[in-house]
Each structure stands twice: as C-alpha cells, then as structure tokens.
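Trying the structure run again after the queue cleared.
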Amino acid sequence: MNSVMVSYDIPESVKCANPSGKFRRWGIRVNASVWIFPPGRVPSEDIADLRSKGAVVHSVEFAEQAQEKILELAKRELRRHSRAVMKHVEERCAKLKADMVPAEMYDLGTKVEIYHKWRGLLSQARRELLAAEQCALGFAVSRDVAEAFDGLKNVLSAEFALATEWRQRQKSKPLMEVLA
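Done. Tokens:
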C-alpha cells in the first residue's frame, strides 16, 4: 500500500462543507484542494461523503519508488505549516496584548471579548498542532518534525499562561476597579 493523492472540486452549486479541517490530521495539503495521505490513512468516508453531495473527487496511488519523496514532502509541509501557525499566533497575540494595554479604558464586556479572542486563537492553534502531530504519526515522521512542533508548543504554553494570568488579575480586582 502506498501514499495516495486526492484532489477535489466542490462546485458552487453543491452545498458541502470544505473537508480541509478534517483532512489536516490525516494528510498534507499540496495546494488548495490537493492532499497527500499516507498509506492506510485515506479518509474514505469523508471522500465518499464529498462524492455523494456532488463534489468531483479524484484519487491516485503513488508508485512505490515515490514514497521517499512523499516523506520528504510531508516533513517539509509539516514544518512549514507549524512555522506559519506559530507566526500567526505570535502576530495575533501581540495585537491582542496591545489591545489589552489600555484595557483600563474599556468596559468589562470589551475586556472579556478581547480575552475570549485570545483564548479562541490559542485553542484553534492547539487544534492545528494536534492535527499536525496526528498527520506526522501517519507518515511516521514525528521525530523528524518534532523541533518545529516544540517551537509551536512553547509559544502556545507561554501565551496560555499569559492569558490565564491576565484573566486572574481581572477577576481579583474589585468590580468597580474593573469597570473603571
């Protein structure tokens, strides 16, 4: 059994959710709607669901001699994706933290909204990391990409700690001070 490339097209007239979120934990994205899945990890039920709803789906199994190149592509894509998620998290968190600096000027609702955006961003990034780790396991390249994942884990841990600390400080203030 070899890696499989799957491409799909969801016509505008078809009411079907894009499967990219689900596919991320099983394979690597080559471009917008082309994915490569490791042997035995093709999400057949999701592909059948796409087809049943009217999407056009093609799949091609790679030759045995292509497997080494597929593994290199998987490692490169997993590293690239981890760096992209880490950069996004760092940039967005910096903006949210900057919004919190003048937080004393905000009402409680705005402060809570900023906090929830921060936590939501971090939760989404954590889901991306877990999906990437599952994908790396499927391609059996976890050791090769561990360093990229560790960097993202460190950023997430630090940001979760800061968000939690900020929230605790807000909770410990008297209500009148928070509302001021």
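The mean pLDDT is 86. Worth checking whether this holds up in the mutant runs.
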